[in-house]
Amino acid sequence: MEMIYFLIGCSVFIALVFLGAFIWANKTGQHDDTHTPAIRILFDDEEPKSSDTESSTQLND
Amino acid sequence: MQNKAINEKIYCFHCGDPVYSDLFQEDSHEFCCLGCQSVYSILSTNNLKNYYKYNDHPGKAQDKKAEHLEYLNEPKIAQKLIDFQDNEYTHITLYIPAIHCSSCIWLLENLYKLNTSIVQSRIDFTKKQAAIKFKHSEISLKKLIELLIAIGYEPIITLQDVVKKQKTVNQNSLVRKIAVAGFCFGNVMLFSLPEYFGFGAIDKEYATLFNWLNLSFAIPVLLYSARDYFISAYNSLKLKQVNLDVPLALGIFILFFRSAVEIIAQSGPGFSDTLCGLVFFILIGKWIQNRTFYHLSFERDYRSYFPVAVTSIQNKQKQPKAIADLEVGERILIRNNEIIPADAILLKGKAAIDFSFVTGESNPVKKTLGEIIYAGGRQLGEAIELEIVKSVSQSYLTNLWNNENYKQYNRKFQTFSNSISKYFTIILLAIATSAAIFWLFNSNTDKAWAAFTAVLIIACPCALALSSPFTLSAALSIFDKNCFFIKNTGAIEQLAKINSLVFDKTGTITSPKSQHIQFAGHLKESELRAVASVCRNSSHPLSIQIVNWLKIDTLESIQDYQEIAGKGIQANVNGNSIKIGSANFTKAKTEADAGSSVYIAIDNEIKGYFSILQPWREDLSTLISDLATTYDLHLISGDQDKDREVLQEVFPANNMHFNQLPQEKLSYIQNMQSSDKMVCMIGDGLNDAGALKQADFGIAISDDINSFSPGCDAILEGSSLNKLPQFLTFAQDAMKVIYFSFIISLSYNVIGLFFAIQGTMSPLFAAILMPLSTITIISFTSITTHIYARKNKLKSS
Predict the structure, then answer these.
(1) B160-164, B182-186, B458-462: range with lowest mean pLDDT
(2) Residue B128 Ramachandran class (φ > 0 left, ψ -120 to 50 alpha, else beta)
(3) Is B224 an 8 Å CB contact of chain A?
(4) Interface confidence (ipTM) of the complex
């Protein structure tokens, strides 16, 4: 039954890792904007450009 | 195309407004104006047509004003606007109210395709902000802003960028505290379960280990998660007050102390589970209470209205200067549509000032040379030169915010839970002490200690601390759904106490949106067409309204179009000269008339005039008569009393006041308050700002919640004004829910106290009673709040 000491140690350690991950995410501002990323993920990838790559004009230069 | 225009309505490909002419076409798409078309051509040449793929008509109608952005090149001013700058890159966060759909996010995050000097742009949709990083050696701040304006996303640049300041710093640290408390609570529950079911004989050896683990999990909860309660309790005791945090902090501390004693002495399992659960729940309550609307700002003052800079003239050199740096005696140049930032004397030019911010009157006032013009007016017409006589912060209008006596006159606002917590704590301590004394007299020291701590633990007002946040935040979201945005939960308690209502007139009980147009005079069909064709070319709000009202689809071609700012427009149509504009411009004899008038002259002959009136808001008379039965109603308007007779039917005659200056509105409210009235001011615009702030509850009416509204307690969308009686009743109902839940939580306390004073409370009993009372309170408050919302017809069943 000594195994239980080891198991408790493991479970608390893993839980602490997740708590640490959450606090890190929170500190780096990952919960600041919870709405925009949900929209952003729906944007399609760029359509393959055919010929107009070289003709793309720069504005305000 | 002409045929098509008659048969079916065509909508602008960019903004979705109806298209009246076929002048603006590109790639077989039609546009309502040159502005929309030019945005489209910029996007299409830069391969950004996806913008139109995600949404139909993602753009906003373009009403370009002449922008003077030279001030952005001034390093001193630019420094105040940017967030951060290093050798290569500049970071800036801009507030762009036009952000409204996924296309906006897509386009603004692809800015680097328009200009490679923009390294990165990220949009925060709820706050309508764009954080942009750019190479300042390649693109100046001015160029960047011009680029945004060119694609139809004009940022609002003010020195008081309140929305930007509202960062979620506080909420984030609270979230971390909740995370720690939740983590500890979960683990403690796990280690407490064997205790709940009773240890078997073999497992007894683990009991000590589990107890020590529980105690160590309770330490971060006590020291980190619950820290704010101890700080708040200490601060309130220092001020010789007792807020609800005092019994909470006391309960938390006793919980920990007794657990530590029991575990160290190995006399019992302690109360770590109750401690962690309690802190976890009350922190969630606090988090719910602190919810705010990030896209709205309730703290704006004059600086949000005023421009960042004006053109100052020094030694005949024109130079942009930040308005805070303006000095008395300085010469400034004010162009068409610019706001006069400080009280000044007119030196040069014809001034026609629109004082609608200050007085509520929108008809421009003419000023002669040498006359003093007060700050807050908007110049219409040609550029004028002024000499400043008072600094910006000392000027007549801005003085309202520096008014000392209303800063001091801040009625101490007591929330319900704070006002009862004093009695609660005293009674609690009395019961605990008398129970302890009773057992001491019976020479049972153990029981005395047990009873004393158990009373403080069991009566810890956790459920009570949760009843207000849960009820009020449920109420807040119901108000929110009805387009009534209240600053915070505390303000709802304030709203429930209101017994007098003060209304402003223009823009509040009249609707600026659905303007009512009448034409006095007679025009032939062909003449109407000509008028519509000329007005179509102007972006002046009155011209747009006239075009929309005339509803003419076929247009004539026009020549020699000219727009004279502040006066009118003129053009030749089929050889006739058409003049549309003010009485002065068309040389009409002025007729006294309510509202704004637009005169029409064809070949110098007056044909008549359009009068544009602001109609009363819908259901105004029912609204007022509903309110009149329970509330004391007042009207204070900056306008002349031309509407007195109409309003007399609904408002009591003694309570109507016209020609009121902003300062007079403020003191009117002060007078009412000194006769012990709880005043709610309902107004709009800068001229009501002082009164809104002074009132016990200030409601700013707005027809576009993203536009600027003055500092207030709540923003109400104009279309929801008719629900005001329901809002007031519902706020009172919400308070009833809080009183009821207070009784429920007290009865739980009484049951608990029955066991506590006998010194026989087991940890398991506390661990069950505390969450049980919490869940009862949360479900009771949310269910009853929604029942009351349905009763008040604020929620469909």
Answers:
(1) B160-164
(2) left
(3) no
(4) 0.78
